[in-house]
């Protein structure tokens, strides 16, 4: 599984529609509206690296109202769930 984080600048008047259209694209798992210099952040999860070339430039970038995108490909995932599992190694139940 390949995960990419896509920063999206959108036409301010169209942010809700852009978010909905991006969220409906195959491969896009989540879309968040955010504060700061960006308008939306999309999480793209695909089976192969080459699939990103279809999802992002051919679909996300072509949504009406998308002004620009910046894509970051994730190397490794760290989550609180993973950390909890690591810290519980070797502990007995109830301890």
From TrEMBL:
Question: Domain Transcription regulator AsnC/Lrp ligand binding spans what residues?
Answer: 7-76
Q: Which residues form a coiled coil?
A: none
Q: What is this protein called?
A: Lrp/AsnC ligand binding domain-containing protein
């Amino acid at each position: 599984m390949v995960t990419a984080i896509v920063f999206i600048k959108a036409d301010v008047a169209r942010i809700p529609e852009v978010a909905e259209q991006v969220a409906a694209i195959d491969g896009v798992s989540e879309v968040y509206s955010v504060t700061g210099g960006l308008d939306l952040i999309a999480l793209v999860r695909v089976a192969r690296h080459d699939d990103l070339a279809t999802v992002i430039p051919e679909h996300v970038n072509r949504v009406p109202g998308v002004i620009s995108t910046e894509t970051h490909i994730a190397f490794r995932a760290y989550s609180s769930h993973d950390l909890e599992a690591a810290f519980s190694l070797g502990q007995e139940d109830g301890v």
